[in-house]
Amino acid sequence: MASTLLVVSVFLAFSSLVSGDKCIGPQVKSDVYTSKEGPMSTQAVFIVEFSLSCKNNLKNLPLYAELNGQVMPASRAISSDKYQVSWSGEHKSVSSGTYNVRIYDEEGYAALRKAQRSGGDTSAISPLYTVPIPYSGVWKGPLVQTEFVAVCAAVLVWYLAHSTRSRLQS
Amino acid sequence: MAGGNKKLTKEEELLLQDFSRNVSTKSSALFYGNAFIVSAIPLWLFWRIHQMDPYQSGVIFGVMTLISTYLVALAYKNVKFVLKHKIAIKREEAVTREVMRNVGDDKKMSKKEKDERILWKKNEVADYEATTFSIFYNNALFLVLVIVASFYVLRTFNPTVNYVLSVVSASGLLALFSTSTPKQ
To answer: A164 to chain B: which residues are within 8 Å by CB?
Structure first.
């Protein structure tokens, strides 16, 4: 009886220690920014700013974000509980659609890295949270350049003047 | 011996005026005023689009505007002179009809006076129409040349060089084209 109680209490103690490092019931509030204009930027950029709240009130957890196989640590603001992570890519290689950013804690990150090194299936590792990024592509600029429109309008006016002059001189 | 000052008749004066390249003071003021305004248009283009600082480039802007004003006014005068005679021929019938409608029944006016009035009116109408058309034609051509030169031909050049070359080439070509004689 005493040994059973001892085992249960040790188990519960370890459980509490383990649950102290793991976020239970994670809730993420996120803001997403994606590039809107092609001519004004050399690359397409995704920026995700998010805050994590856990039911067990854990704070300042080291977090990692993964997008399209690229994993990086999420930067954490000193004065607030916000995290930020960003990606960039050539406009040509970033197509429109919805991208899913998977957020991992340290345990998940370690498992992910292990799976990536061994060539295993990374989608089997469940993230702490997933933030969807809807991306509709960038505006590539006007169909016709404005200077071309200006030249055409100026040439048209000149042509009218020239044809009137030719008629007068005939 | 013949000599001394023979006073010109009104008809001779009108004919001299007609065939002279000289413009009246009013026309000259109109030409230079318009030429200045048109020459100043590229300033806005280079200041706002090509991002030239107006204070740093003030001297260049001033000098090039004056040169361009002179060349554009020269083009106005040349084109006006060429067009005036053609317009006079085309408008002769209409002017004659209008003048005769006003003075045709006037018995006190001799035929010679009526003819002088027609000639004077024809000269006035042709002068005005040639002046305004010359300004319109040369402005249109100047703007085409400036836009093509600054946005296409000289686009890789430094903005200051672009401004100087596009304005001088546009106004220079304008003056050059205005000296061409029409095919007879």
So the answer is: 133, 137
Query: Complex ipTM above 0.90?
Result: no
- d(CA B104, CA A84) in angstroms, rounded, equals 93
DSSP structure class, residue B109: S
Tokens of B106: 């006037």
Shortest Cα–Cα distance, A168 to chain B (Å): 6
**pLDDT value of position B21:** 60
Q: Do A169 and B140 touch (CB under 8 A)?
A: no
Q: What is the pLDDT of residues A84-117, one digit of tens each?
A: 999 888 888 888 888 899 999 888 889 888 888 8
Q: How confident is the model at residue A16 (pLDDT cuts 50, 70, 90)?
A: very low
Any long-range contacts for B49-56 (C-beta under 8 Å, 24+ apart)?
B50/B150, B50/B159, B50/B162, B50/B163, B51/B159, B52/B159, B52/B160, B52/B163
Q: CB contact, 8 Å: A90 with chain B?
A: no
pTM: 0.65
The Cα–Cα gap between A132 and B166 comes to 52
A165 CB near a chain B CB, below 8 Å? yes
Query: How sure is the predictor about B118, in pLDDT bands with cuts at 50, 70 and 90?
Result: confident
Measured CA to CA, the distance from residue A46 to residue A40 in angstroms comes to 15
Which of 133-152 (B) contact A at CB < 8 A?
A: 133, 136-137, 140-141, 143-144, 147-148, 151-152
Tell me whether B45 touches chain A (CB under 8 Å): no
